[in-house]
Design a protein that fits this description.
With 148 residues, the protein is mainly alpha-helical. 80% of the residues lie in helices and 0% in strands.
């Protein structure tokens, strides 16, 4: 399905960088397309003081990517791969849609679901590397939390 998986750490790093850029561009496009970009970012919404900010940062930027990548990428794709190669792509579509709905309801299918799809491609492209998808997910959450 995905030919030429990354072999060297340099190739994997390039894939992580590219996936991060594509996810951020996709997020901005969806927000503009759905006219939601006007709202405040998470820091403004929560009016975060230092202790609360640290908790939110840890939860959104550290814990969530570790948990979500295990739940929505690593486990389902590894199970699909072990069962039958042909069910990997449908598994990616289904888990990406669920990932989007869990994040933001039906709107999330476009934004977070699209990001989930890209993270799944990265996971496979980098030889089923859990670390690659986690690092990319963390970077995107940090940038979305502080920039968008």
């Amino acid at each position: 399905m995905f030919t030429n998986p990354a072999k060297s750490p340099k190739e994997k790093a390039i894939n992580i960088f590219a996936a991060t850029i594509v996810i951020l561009m996709w997020s901005v496009f969806v927000k503009i397309f759905l006219n939601i970009l006007k709202g405040p970012n998470l820091l403004q919404i929560y009016n975060l003081a230092a202790p609360k900010a640290a908790y939110v940062f840890f939860t959104i930027c550290i814990f969530s990517p570790l948990f979500e990548e295990m739940l929505f990428r690593y486990a389902p794709i590894k199970i699909a791969k072990s069962l039958k190669q042909e069910i990997i792509f449908p598994t990616i579509l289904i888990t990406s849609a669920i990932f989007g709905i869990v994040h933001e309801g039906l709107y999330g299918i476009l934004q977070a679901g699209g990001a989930g799809f890209i993270l799944s491609i990265l996971f496979i492209k980098n030889n089923y590397s859990y670390l690659s998808s986690v690092v990319t997910h963390m970077l995107c959450n940090i940038m979305i939390m502080y920039i968008l």
